[in-house]
Amino acid sequence: MTIPAGEIVVLVGPSGCGKTTTLRMINRLIEPSSGTITIGGQDTSAVNPDRLRRGIGYSIQQAGLFPHLTVAKNIATVPGLLGWDRKRVAGRIDEMLELVGLEPDSFRNRYPRQLSGGQQQRVGVARALAADPPVLLMDEPFGAVDPITRGLLQDELLRLQAELRKTIVFVTHDFNEAVKLGDRIAVLGKGSRILQYDTPSAILAAPADATVAGFAGADAALKQLTLTRVSDVTLVECATALETEPVDSLRAAITGHGTDWGLVLDDERRPLRWVTLPQLAHASSLHDAGTPVGKGVSLRSTLQEALSALLAESTANAVVTGRRGVYAGLITIDTLVSHLSGMRSTAAGSAAGDATAEGSA
């Protein structure tokens, strides 16, 4: 199993399959009985265990903070062991607190008992990153917090990863969390056997066996929609007109599109209202014709968010806006179905290619 540098690899699997044991073998809290683990090409068994661990960040479910030490001293643990001077350590403490979204002046001198669960986890991540390790091990770090806080912490980790590009090995029981966070997912089975190791999209589109399919869940297709941004698909155009234009202008545009509805925009081309041909028949102007557009989506939104938006619209279309809310196009049900079909075809083709390569070998 090879973990590419700068990626998040998530280990999932049933209890007792060896997820945490795998992490502990990486930093030699547990010695492997056989095989070799290398980091950056170096065999970890040839490195002094203490020196090895000081170069690997470690974040666990209950944060693992020392209760008798302040937040600052917790974060300073590894830099202190590495012999950093006080000025450098103090600067790093504040830098790490700011990085994880905690105000240094407010949190530096607090004790773990004075923090919420989410704040403790943030400090735990700050401590794990304090010595700037290239590798970060995370053992269900968000498993003990409420769902809302968990989502926020996941978003925070993705933000940090976009900035820092660490190599992260992340353990979770939650496949949804694995899909959201992982560049790759390793599904482990009994005896720590790797059942499938691939990208989230490939696993969701073509699970290797029934066990992997069970982890992916019956809603695997919906999970796939979380992996794609609106900006990554081709948007659909519809009939539009500015609200200052005559009614006949929109009527002609609707007829030209072969539909019975269109979209009224303001002078800045921001979407205002859906209008149908029957509504136009009784309208003298576009200023008050139609029904308001619901909550749309941006180009940065996921296709799952687009699905939620289009289900709330009477036209079953999600309005997409770009910068400053300017109309960019529509997402339709057909858009989503076509995208999912394409993902399945790609995954099937890749699987067939791998099988052919193995047969040739």
From TrEMBL:
Pfam families: ABC_tran. It comes from the Bacteria. Residues 1-215 form the ABC transporter domain. It is an enzyme of class 7 (translocase). SUPFAM superfamilies: CBS-domain pair, P-loop containing nucleoside triphosphate hydrolases. Keywords: ATP-binding, Nucleotide-binding, Transport. GO terms for molecular function: ABC-type quaternary ammonium compound transporting activity; ATP binding; ATP hydrolysis activity. Its EC number is 7.6.2.9. The keyword Translocase does not apply. Belongs to the ABC transporter superfamily. PANTHER family: OSMOPROTECTANT IMPORT ATP-BINDING PROTEIN OSMV. This is ABC-type quaternary amine transporter.
